[in-house]
Amino acid sequence: MDGQAKILIIDDSPADIHVLGGILGKDYQLFFATNGADGLDIIMRERPDLVLLDVLMPDMDGYDICNWLKADRLLRDIPVIFVTALTEVSEETRGLEAGAVDYLTKPVRAPIVKARVRTHLELKRHQDLLRQLACLDGLTCVANRRRFDELLEQEWRRALRTAQPLSLILTDVDDFKAYNDHYGHLAGDECLRLVASTLAAAVKRPMDLFARYGGEEFACLLPETDLAGAVVVARRLVAAVAELRIPHTYSGAAAWVTISAGVASIVPGEERSAIDLVRAADTCLYRAKKEGRNRVAC
Question: Which residue, among 101, 279, 139, has the nearest Cα to 216 in the 3D structure?
Answer without folding.
Answer: 139
